[in-house]
Design a protein that fits this description.
The protein is built from 11 helices and 6 strands. The chain is about 65% helix and about 10% strand. The protein has one domain. The radius of gyration is 20 Å and the shape is globular.
Length: about 300
């Protein structure tokens, strides 16, 4: 039997939780109501192929990008009081294509351009790749620092903290009430923020192995290898979470936890209530599915 690990993301005035069989988003509307949206996860996410190392990371990350975009749009409509309507696949595709192009261009291609521009100063290919990686890390940390200072992001980061507290409480076997959940940390070892840090760090190693190819080949390699680096980062994050009780692993994973101080804030009880409602929904659905098939067990 495999263990089901839960996680999700903060959205506008709400939280999305993803389980084995479905993803549920709970949003607090302006009038105080809790509004929910649930989507069944595609069969590919639950199939045998999706459990293979590296492949499971690519599938899970792609599904989370699509789900995250749709759920973020849903939460924004609830927050604005706009009647819900389905977002077309084309709209989601355009948004994802734009955001992915911007992210790859800024965090992977731009550092290469800058490091190659400094080629007159940096003659060693290994040093050049390290400089490129340092630029990438600096851009990533600068980006997180910038959005952390934006007042409009404060509530989103509170819901991010509520999501982490709820998962931590569940994995510790605590009762899922706001009072109990509030006792737990806003940091979590499997957080997406930590995953992005792993991607930035791994890229230094991967591109160093490639050496110093011609400029155009270097750009193409940065673009094509992003999925592989992301899949490796996903596997390392899972591995770190699994063996987190070992001191060396905790030391290695610590920077990812420190970084979450930028992207989480202490939530209020009503925000924790939203996260609990989202988790309870996916837990109920997964328990039903597991009882029917016996193919997994819930963590803890």
């Amino acid at each position: 039997m495999r263990t089901v690990y839960y996680g999700g993301q903060a959205v506008v005035d709400g939280v999305m939780m993803r389980g084995l069989s479905q993803a549920t988003t709970i949003v607090r509307a302006p009038d105080g109501r809790l509004v929910s949206r649930t989507e069944d996860l595609p069969g590919a996410v639950r199939g045998q192929v999706a459990r293979l190392p590296l492949i499971r990371g690519l599938i899970a990350l792609w599904e989370m990008l699509i789900l995250g975009t749709r759920m973020m749009l849903f939460s924004a409509r609830v927050h604005s009081g706009i009647a819900e309507e389905d977002v077309s696949k084309r709209t989601v595709g355009i948004m994802l294509a734009f955001s992915m192009t911007l992210a790859v261009g800024l965090f992977f291609v731009f550092p290469l351009v800058v490091s190659r521009a400094a080629g007159g100063v940096v003659h060693d290919s290994l040093v050049g790749n390290i400089v490129e990686g340092i630029i990438r890390l600096a851009l990533f940390l600068g980006y997180l620092t910038l959005i952390a200072r934006m007042p409009q992001m404060y509530r989103v980061f509170q819901y991010h903290g509520a999501e982490h507290k709820t998962i931590n409480a569940y994995e510790a076997g605590a009762t899922l009430t706001p009072e109990q959940v509030q006792r737990y940390s806003t940091l979590h070892v499997r957080c997406g923020t930590a995953f992005l840090l792993w991607v930035a760090a791994l890229s230094i190693v991967v591109f160093a192995v490639l050496g110093h190819p011609p400029f155009l080949i270097g750009i193409v390699s940065r673009i094509l290898l992003v999925p592989l680096i992301a899949a490796l980062g996903y596997e390392l994050l899972r591995l770190g979470a699994r063996f987190y009780s070992f001191t060396p692993v905790r030391i290695v994973m610590q920077p990812g936890l420190w970084l979450q101080h930028l992207t989480t804030r202490e939530p209020s009880d009503d925000q924790v209530e939203v996260a609990i409602a989202a988790l309870r929904a996916v837990l109920a659905a997964d328990l039903k599915a597991i009882q029917a098939t016996g193919t997994a067990r819930l963590a803890p």
